[in-house]
UniProtKB/TrEMBL annotation:
An example Gene Ontology molecular-function term: metal ion binding
Renumbered residue ranges of the record's region 2-C-methyl-D-erythritol 2,4-cyclodiphosphate synthase: 234-388
Enzyme Commission (EC) number: 2.7.7.60, 4.6.1.12
Protein name: Bifunctional enzyme IspD/IspF
Lyase found in the keyword field: yes
GO process terms (BP): isopentenyl diphosphate biosynthetic process, methylerythritol 4-phosphate pathway; terpenoid biosynthetic process
Length: 388
């Protein structure tokens, strides 16, 4: 079975980044190191991720990556004084069932899943493989300030990561390097030194290494471009209405409001939250609340609609969506709701894991017209935007 341990080298000092280790810098909504974790965690053949970092950064790294352990096993270990030593410590931490190691620079956060899968396939076939790109520039060999040679550009590649090897092969290469006191800056060199050819898998120019502050700006622009290309926006509308009756609590937007009557329903009859849920489900083409929470199911008798909203948002997350914004309107003659709207916004924003500025709730009347105007019921409309 093909089982890969990803060794993520994240022991940078941040000297050229204003003193902040580049693995902890933010790139978009995640830190640099999280981008790589997110990519590798999606690949079925990856059995574990081993993050090699500085001794003094271990606690910070573990805290940052703790939530990812629910998706894939992550180990954090201390690096050495050189890259070669750091990688060796990562290899020592590999699990017993591992067949291959994939060594990746945490400072390359934009590596694409499809490129990783290609180099994995080549490593399985050739025993050793690395991502790389053809040099766009003409390279000169210079001695003492004078051009000595101009190699043929078509044969020159810029090596990237991940670099992937059979673990048995790489361990043999490590022993050979240690025996001869070789110190290589590139992992392929270790394997080349024992006479094993390394296959070059075509990579992507976006898989750049972050070295200077200017690189961060370029990577941010590339990330934003990629997100624009891949993002999907969908709009949903929800509507709900419940009758007002005696002997029921009045709950709107998760807030209990003192009133002489309340809304009748199988759950807590929170008409506002029900409209929001229907809008979200509709935007994602996931049906409606009647399908997910039928009023014939005793499990939902008296249910807290805010909890149901959290469940709906989790369903959307599984489909790759998150809430962009919510705009809702409550239609009620009585009671006056203005003072309760801020609490409703907060409850709904928390359930949907969005900021307060992404939720707007309004209340209006129908000027004593119709069933809401006659205080026989309360209705709500909601319009939502979801994004992938």
């Amino acid at each position: 079975m093909f089982r890969v341990s990803v060794i993520l080298v994240a022991a940078g000092s941040g000297t050229r980044m204003g003193g902040v280790p580049k693995q902890f810098l933010h790139l978009g909504s995640m830190t640099v190191v999280e981008h790589s974790i997110h990519t590798f965690a999606q690949i079925p053949s990856v059995a574990e991720i081993i993050v090699v970092t500085k001794e003094e950064e271990i606690s910070r790294m573990k805290s940052l990556l703790d939530e990812y352990n629910e998706v894939i096993p992550i180990k954090v270990t201390a690096g050495g004084s050189t890259r070669q030593e750091s990688v060796a410590r990562g290899v020592e931490a590999c699990g017993q069932e591992i067949t291959h190691v994939a060594i990746h620079d945490a400072a390359r956060p934009l590596v694409r899943r499809k490129d990783v899968e290609h180099v994995f396939a080549d490593a399985l076939e050739y025993r050793a493989a690395t991502l790389g790109i053809v040099s766009k520039d003409t390279i000169k060999v210079v001695h003492h300030g004078i051009i000595d040679e101009t190699p043929q550009r078509s044969t020159l590649y810029l090596t990237q990561t991940p670099q992937v090897f059979e673990i048995v092969l790489y361990r043999r290469a490590m022993k050979f390097a240690a025996l001869h006191e070789f110190d290589f800056t590139d992992d392929c060199q270790l394997v080349e030194a024992i006479g094993v050819p390394v296959h070059m898998t075509p990579g992507d120019y976006r898989n750049m290494k972050l070295t200077t502050p200017e690189d961060i700006a370029v990577a941010q622009a590339l990330l934003e471009e990629e997100e624009r290309k891949s993002s999907r926006m969908r709009i949903g509308h929800g509507y709900d209405v419940h009758r007002l009756v005696e002997g029921r609590k009045l709950i709107l937007g998760g807030v209990e409001i003192s009133h002489t009557v309340g809304l009748l329903g199988h759950s807590d009859a929170d008409v506002l939250v029900h409209a929001v849920m229907d809008a979200l489900l509709g935007a994602a083409a996931l049906g409606d609340i009647g399908q997910h929470f039928p009023d014939t199911d005793p499990a939902f008798a008296g249910a807290d609609s805010i909890k149901l909203l959290e469940y709906v948002c989790a369903l959307l997350a599984k489909q790759g969506y998150h809430v962009g914004n919510i705009d809702a309107t409550i239609i009620a003659q009585k009671p006056k709701l203005a003072e309760f709207l801020p609490q409703m916004r907060e409850k709904i924003a928390t359930a949907c894991k969005v900021g307060l500025d992404a939720v707007n709730i309004k209340a209006t009347t129908e000027e004593k017209l119709g069933f809401t105007g006659e205080e026989r019921g309360i209705a709500a409309h909601a319009i939502v935007l979801i994004e992938s």
